[in-house]
Design goal:
By secondary structure, the protein is of the alpha+beta class. The chain has helices at 5-16, 54-83, 90-117, 142-145, 156-160, 169-194, 201-226; strands at residues 19-23, 38-47, 122-126, 130-140.
């Protein structure tokens, strides 16, 4: 007795739905931990003659490119602060080094996502009435292969242990700009996550780190600004911040306008 096409399709939906994994990379060392990076796939069951919506692929590529540019801007801002003779605040220097280390890792992950997504979908099985198609969406476990350990940024404990440390105008400028920069990253991640064409679980897991980490850093930077002995609203910030494509219309205004991050 032949299995009906609908039942066969259902079987493949169960067997191939979600993420499937295929080993592509092996660690060079003799690591016995079992953390072997693997290529992640998204799998579709499509009627014969239909293809994966190209908008899904384009959404991933556009987002990866935009977030990479945005992260590169944060790295530039942090490097500029560390290289500035006025950038002497030890707590902000610790934050700048953490941003550089952590966002360089995320930039590398975004590059890997792009390389795999660009390969396009491939047919796994052609059943006549339906096809099983999958596409590569990135690599899971790169932190193990690259031996990356997230660098801990400073927090409220660091501030508590330095009660007399007052920020300078340069510190406030860096803090205000990075707050806006982080807010834009949050807006970008939330927009991607809410997009029905955004289905890449590697990108969504990366976004989870951003959504968890960057509000904490914004709160920390706000504490830095509030320690300024002068008027922080009088400290001007750049009209064009690296990694934020649109010029800023805020001169040196109040940090109450955190919605600037949505203008991209």
């Amino acid at each position: 007795m032949k299995m009906p096409i609908a039942s066969l399709a259902s079987a493949f939906l169960i067997g191939f739905s979600g993420i499937s994994w295929a080993t592509e990379y092996e660690n060079d060392d003799d690591d016995r931990s079992g953390h072997v990076p693997v290529v992640a796939h998204e799998t579709f069951v499509l009627p014969s003659g239909e293809s994966v919506d190209p908008t899904i692929v384009r959404t991933d590529l556009d987002y990866a490119a935009a977030m990479k540019r945005h992260h590169e801007g944060a790295v530039t801002m942090s490097t500029d602060y560390l290289e500035d003779a006025r950038g002497t605040n030890p707590i902000l220097r610790k934050l700048a080094r953490a941003i550089i280390a952590n966002q360089r890792f995320e930039i590398a992950v975004l590059d890997v996502v792009r390389q795999h997504v660009e390969k396009g979908p491939e047919t796994v099985a052609d059943l006549g009435a339906v096809r099983v198609v999958r596409r590569e969406i990135g690599v899971d476990g790169l932190e193990h292969q690259w031996k990356f350990v997230k660098r801990r940024p400073p927090g409220l404990l660091d501030l508590a242990l330095a009660p007399g440390l007052e920020p300078s105008e340069r510190d406030v400028k860096f803090s205000k700009e990075m707050m806006l920069h982080h807010q834009m990253a949050l807006d970008m991640t939330r927009a991607y996550n809410a997009d029905p064409n955004a289905t890449n679980l590697i990108l969504k897991r990366l976004n989870l780190d951003i959504i968890v980490d960057q509000p904490n850093e914004i709160g920390f930077l706000q504490q830095i600004v509030e320690r300024f002995p002068g008027d922080p609203d009088a400290v001007e910030i750049d009209r064009s911040i690296p990694g934020m494509d649109m010029p800023m219309d805020h001169g040196g205004g109040s940090m109450g306008g955190m919605d600037h991050g949505a203008q991209h």
